[in-house]
Amino acid sequence: MAADQGILRDAMARVPAGVALVTAHDRTGVPHGFTASSFVSVSMEPPLALVCLARTANSFPVFDSCREFAVSVLRDDHTELAMRFARKSADKFAGGEFIRTARGGTVLDGALAVVECTVHERYPAGDHIILLGEVQSVHVEEKGAPAVYVDRGFAALCSGTGACVAAAGQGAHAHAG
Q1: 140 in helix, strand or coil?
Q2: What CATH number should be reported for the domain whose range is 5-155?
Q3: Domain boundaries defined on the chain
Q4: How much is the pTM?
Q5: CA dist 117 → 25, 53, 72, 76, 105 (Å)
Q6: Phi, psi (rounded to 5 degrees) for 122
Q7: Which of 26, 27, 142, 168, CA to CA, is 20 to 30 A from 151?
Q8: Cα separations (Å) of 26 from 32, 63, 167?
Q9: Which one-letter DSSP state was computed for residue 37?
Q10: How confident is the model over 28-37, as pLDDT tens digits?
């Protein structure tokens, strides 16, 4: 017997996740993107990472056929941007916070880290697709706190003194977009 979807959703919401913007270009060069809480390292040799995207996302057709994608790991002060990319809005890139990389990807200027991948494989996974990417380029900023998503809202990590900030409110599903 399959697990109750509501209970499973509640259980999975309790697992803290980093937040990233995933971008790719369509065949005409227009950037598309979504917010992901499912970006993880898979292998160091070869260097592989994966990200998951809902099949209902407006950007799904782009990611279902792209050859490359870029991941911008968000800082804790990027929560509004994460919410913009989680929605099905027309122009997610309107804020001007984005730059082009030497490889041609569109990434967030000032992201905590940027990982650029070529698509290694795509796997259907229920109502999502898993994009497995071979890492081609990585840029890491020296300092900064990551955006964290848990219990359907953004939260801060505990500081070195042990002080913690509670979740910052309820948010949209972190990869709707």
Answers
A1: strand
A2: 2.30.110.10
A3: 5-155
A4: 0.86
A5: 13, 15, 12, 24, 10
A6: -125, 140
A7: 142
A8: 7, 8, 35
A9: S
A10: 999 999 999 9
